[in-house]
Design brief:
This protein has three helices and 27 strands. A nine-stranded antiparallel beta sheet has the order 10-11-12-13-27-23-22-17-20. A six-stranded antiparallel beta sheet has the order 16-25-24-21-18-19, with no helix packed on it. A four-stranded antiparallel beta sheet has the order 1-2-3-4, with no helix packed on it. It starts with 11 loop residues before the first strand and ends with a strand.
Length: 330
């Protein structure tokens, strides 16, 4: 009997077109790397590395946090596993460590699928299909939920990319320079501070400082440190908040980060994602990775939507829900 040993992040799939190249890992339907003409657009990780900090994972059936892991739906109280134990929260859904199966693999497009089986805290059956497609305008990710169970299910989704502005390739497997991993990481440690952020959001969801539990939606004019409606440098501002009240052009909102030389990356999304989480990736305990990318996560609902009900999708039996977003080079 032969044993096939896969990389820690699962099967490795690559697509390429129009100068873009993406590496997708089957565990969590994860965007492991994305480059344009050899320049990283997201913080990558290695194929045989346990994915750090949810980088590139597909978040479902909820993005962000459910406070205390408890919620009530259709008159029933549920308790989810606390996957963020240090804060006592249920974080980023149930699929981040699930192996997805191939449904379609082409040179410029792949489709992966997995089923959320009924389980403690989420006794619903939802099939989740994730498509990655490259074209001249970048990488589009589409998440489709199909309720294949007998009961209505609460639903929300979003991605978890860490965007990179103006950087050469950070991936060891792509580097043609003889530098150590530590040197590569030190090179980008302070880059978030130097980047310019355009975030066209007029409202921010404030949170508690200890557990990041939602408090209230307030105008960013009351919190000028988080007002990036006019593009400006991030500097040393800490951000780990959800934003809404998004300014859109033809229904599309776009968040953009750029380096001093004008190169950068943008992520855009339509009204099916009325929220976006932004995080400066602060990891004080790990200086080598602190603030090396800016997490920008379009979301169909805000944090703790299973409790608040705000923009929560109720997925009826046999129904589907589709959401998508696009990452492109600037």
């Amino acid at each position: 009997m032969s044993v096939v040993v896969e990389a820690r992040s699962g099967r490795q799939l690559r697509i390429a077109a129009h100068g873009y190249e993406a590496a997708i890992a089957s565990v969590g339907a994860t965007l492991r790397s994305l480059t344009f003409d050899g320049r990283d657009l997201v913080v990558p990780f290695e194929a045989d590395e346990v994915r750090p900090a949810y980088r590139g994972a597909t978040l479902a059936p909820w993005p962000n946090r459910i406070v205390d892991g408890t919620y009530r739906f259709a008159g029933v109280e549920y308790q989810l596993p606390l996957t963020e134990p240090e804060r006592g929260q249920a974080l980023h859904g149930l699929l981040a460590w699930t192996e997805f199966a191939d449904r379609l693999v082409l040179d410029d497009r792949i489709v992966l699928a997995a089923v959320i089986e009924p389980q403690t805290g989420y006794p619903f059956r939802v099939e989740v299909e994730v498509e990655y497609r490259l074209d001249a305008d970048g990488l589009q990710q589409t998440v489709t939920a199909n309720n294949i169970g007998a009961d209505a299910a609460p639903w929300g989704t979003g991605p978890h990319p860490y965007l990179v502005a103006g950087a050469r390739s950070l991936s060891k497997e792509r580097s043609d320079e003889r530098r150590t991993e530590r040197a590569q990481r030190v090179e980008v440690t302070k880059r978030v501070n130097a980047w310019t952020l355009l975030l066209p959001a007029s409202e921010v969801l404030t949170v508690t400082p200890d557990r990041l539990s939602p408090v209230a939606v307030e105008p960013v004019s009351q919190h000028p440190e988080w007002d990036f409606r006019t593009a400006r440098r991030i500097d040393d501002v800490f951000i780990d908040h959800a934003f809404t009240g998004l300014d859109r052009t033809d229904g599309i909102a776009e968040v953009r980060v750029t380096a001093a030389d004008g190169t950068g990356v943008a992520i855009s999304f339509d009204e099916r994602c009325p929220w976006v989480q932004v995080h400066t990736a602060d990891t004080p305990a790990e200086p080598s990775t602190s603030r090396i990318g800016l997490a920008v996560e379009p979301m169909t609902c805000p944090p703790d939507a299973f409790n608040s009900g705000v923009d929560l999708v109720t997925l009826e039996p046999g129904a589907s829900h589709v959401a998508s977003w696009r990452i492109r080079a600037v």
